[in-house]
Amino acid sequence: MTLISVPSQSRLIRAGTASEPFFEVRKVTDNPSINHHPFFFVPAYDDAMRWLFFVSSLSGSPQIFVERQSDGAVFQLTNRDNLADWSIIPSSDGKWIYFVAGNEGWRVSPETGLEEQMMTFETSEMREKGMTGAAMGTTALSKSGRWWAIPAKFGQITRFVLIDTETRKSDVIVERDVIGHPQFCPDDDDLILYAGPLTDRVWITDRSGARNRRLYQREHDMQWITHESWWPGQKSVLMVDWPHGMKSVDVETGTVRNVTSVPAWHAAANSQGTQLVCDTNFPDIGMQLIALDGAGSAPGRLLYASKASSRGDHWAEPFPYKNGPIEVYAPQHTHPHPRFSPDGKRVIFTSDRSGNAQVYEILLRE
Predict the structure, then answer these.
(1) Which of 35, 87, 352, 363 could bond to 100 as cystine, CB 3.0-4.6 Å?
(2) Biggest CA-to-CA distance, the chain
(3) Cα 281 from Cα 53, distance rounded (Å)
(4) pLDDT digit string (tens) for 261-307?
(5) CA angle in degrees (0–180, nearest 5) for 303-308-314
(6) Please, are residues 146 and 189 in contact by the beta-carbon 8 Å criterion?
(7) Contacts of 87 (CB under 8 A, 6+ apart)
(8) DSSP code for 54
(9) CB of 275 closer than 8 Å to CB of 291
(10) Which residues, including other chains, have CB under 8 Å from residue 295's CB and lie 6 or more apart?
(11) Whole-Å CA distances, 197 to 29, 141, 181
């Protein structure tokens, strides 16, 4: 399709002051529909920060939109009735946004709106049923942009499909029961983190699938390990030990360390590997900034109160998945999912504080 220009809805809702000159909050979207940025471990900007990527149902169904940072112009890139809205992931160079629509893998150019089909999956399922974990259908793109990893459900098994974005050749690298939330290591295109079953979540593999292995073994059957993400520059994985704080595990040595006792919910490090941003729930004490100082007891500092509804009552209970998956009501667009910009100077988040989920951007203090 061609680019569809959309009137910008951006407006400043909190301006900087003399005491806080570099703390502003901007409402990127403002319309009576569901809007959200990509998931908390997925970039919302390209590395050069020419584009801000988000999903909006402004036209009636979830579509990919971009905001050009040079002038604030907004464009609708897709027009589909089967977009998997949590599957979107931009390339670091900003040339493409990859996404799943139905049982097909595609990419679209933010410059031209040109769409290219990458693959058709011979399945009508594609992902688990539900609202969380593997049911979201998130995908992973390597830092170089060469490799795109997509879990695809085929009956009782899930196939981890790796696509070479240059040749469009694809291979199944792992087959198993559950594969969710894949993430390429930002420091190594040959390492992929993914979530297995809810009782055994933290796994990594290389691109061949030959070194597929569990990275972390739970300490007991009620420990709730969740929301894993990479720690840039460390070759370590950060993970939430809900609701007790966060741990990290070293990929090479398996060494486990405490990171913070702040009850982080969705937490991701900045590209520099020096700081975490997270949302909180039960209780919601606002989005927090946490220094990655290696001490294991880094306190949180209030960033901003998202006032999102953060649906998902199961988070208030002890680990609910001991006997297998359960049905939960947890629409993901009601969660803030904060994420740093590549330069570490902004935080993007989603909130339904105004009644509809909207995308917000925070300019941080220097």
Answers:
(1) 87
(2) 59
(3) 26
(4) 999 999 999 999 999 999 999 999 999 999 998 777 778 999 999 99
(5) 110
(6) yes
(7) 98, 99, 100, 137, 138, 139, 150
(8) E
(9) yes
(10) none
(11) 35, 22, 11
